[in-house]
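To whoever is on call:

I kicked off a structure prediction for a single chain this morning and the downstream step that reads the tokens threw a length-mismatch warning. I double-checked the sequence; it's 126 residues and nothing unusual in it as far as I can see. Pasting both halves so you can look.
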Amino acid sequence: MSDEKLQRGFKKLRELGSKSPAEDLKIFDFVPGFGQALVEYEFCDIYNRPGLDLKARQMVTIAGLTALGYAVNQLHVHVRMALKAGCTKLEIYETMIQMAPFAGFPAVINALKAAKEVIEALEKAS
């Protein structure tokens, strides 16, 4: 793990709206190295690949997390990031609804509720 990869990952996280990526990762302090590995792999190696812009990456991420059906905490994070990347509320909701034939209605209902919570909180704060 290189400091350069970590810094590139933090830069991408800030671009997606994380005000303090290092602070956000303190939740992983009980497992040394996990937060750093997550930032380096996901936000440096994957998010900096060519071929998709940040908006498309966030829509794909939301679709995948929706399909899992249980990743509510991660959906909270990625819905905020999707909005920061330029996704509209409608695009987020429709991306989730698109997963209904593949992931099932319970998974989509969980995702829609998570997105609604994030969007309402952000609207209330602004």
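Update from on-call: the warning came from a stale cache, not from the record. Cleared it. Sanity check on the structure: DSSP finds eight helices and no strands in the chain.
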